[in-house]
């Protein structure tokens, strides 16, 4: 665990979060500032900085993360109308928290894939 990492502290229970799904290797909780009617963050319980680091270092944990994102979409009732899974990565990707997380968003049409496009 990285004591300076916000999401490691959520995993440790030091910072409260609304947890919606949990497996041995993943945790999913509602985003504090939702950008869509449903906005859940899915993370590996182990610390990896971003999706590229995760995929390189632990492909099995990466697979678990995707499976958990799909399970969250199903549990949140998003699979019928569709949803989006987003990994913001690095500076240009707009990543703010450097513990890899999948944003699972849906519940309304989400508009263009990128701002203005
Ligand atoms: P990023 O920009 O790194 O892809 O996304 C970070 C996300 O974490 C943002 O959507 C932000 O709203 C969310 N977030 C930041 N701090 C907290 C927090 O303390 N609790 C929860 N549940 N979400 C947070
Ligand atoms: Zn962390």
From TrEMBL:
Protein name: Histidine triad nucleotide-binding protein
Gene Ontology MF term list: catalytic activity
Chain ranges of the HIT domain: 6-115
Domain of life: Bacteria
Motif residue range(s): Histidine triad motif: 99-103
Active site positions, chain numbering: 101 (tele-amp-histidine intermediate)
Pfam families the UniProt entry points to: HIT
């Amino acid at each position: 665990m990285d004591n300076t990492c916000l999401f490691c502290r959520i995993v440790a229970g030091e910072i409260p979060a609304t947890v919606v799904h949990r497996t041995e290797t993943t945790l999913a909780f509602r985003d504090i500032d939702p950008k869509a009617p449903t906005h859940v963050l899915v993370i590996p319980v182990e610390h990896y900085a971003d999706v590229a680091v995760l995929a390189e270092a632990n492909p099995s944990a990466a697979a678990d993360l995707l499976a958990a994102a799909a399970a969250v979409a199903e549990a949140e009732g998003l699979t019928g109308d569709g949803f989006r899974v987003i990994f913001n990565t690095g500076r240009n990707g707009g990543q703010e928290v450097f513990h890899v997380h999948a944003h699972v968003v849906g519940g309304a049409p989400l508009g263009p894939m990128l701002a203005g496009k």
